[in-house]
Write a structure and sequence with these properties.
Layout: H1 2-13, H2 18-23, E1 28-29, E2 32-33, H3 36-72, H4 80-96, H5 109-113
Antiparallel strand pairs: 1-2
């Protein structure tokens, strides 16, 4: 459940921030140096789209594995909310190393378990 929740948080809270773009340095080319913000925006969009596809595929896999685990151990269903509340703070700390998260993340257990739900990026 932890990796599933992490990937959902990554998908939900990824966005190009001014800090990310400012941290990139200009890349020399045969015609001089290209503007950082133009290059940064192009890179961010490409990187974001690539990561989004990868994370969505991982989410599908993690949901399948979780469903199989629940089928093998039906007694875990009664503990899902407790398990989710236990792993959520660690997921938030992990994803906060990559992205700025709000104090209160908006992600429910029902969303995590819904095989047709994917967050929209903020």
């Amino acid at each position: 459940m932890m990796r599933l929740t992490e990937h959902l948080l990554k998908l939900k809270y990824w966005r190009a921030t001014p800090r990310r773009l400012q941290a990139q340095t200009p890349v020399p080319s045969s015609r001089g140096t290209r503007p950082t913000d133009w290059l940064g925006n192009a890179r961010d969009e490409t990187e974001q789209q690539r990561n989004k596809k990868h994370w969505r595929a991982e989410i599908v896999n993690f949901r399948i594995l979780l469903d199989k685990r629940l089928q093998d151990s039906p007694s875990l269903k009664a503990k899902l909310e407790e398990i989710y509340q236990d792993v959520l703070p660690g997921c938030q700390r992990s994803v906060a190393q990559l992205f700025d998260l709000p104090e209160e993340v908006e992600l429910t257990l029902e969303q995590v378990l819904d095989e047709n739900w994917y967050p929209e990026s903020n």
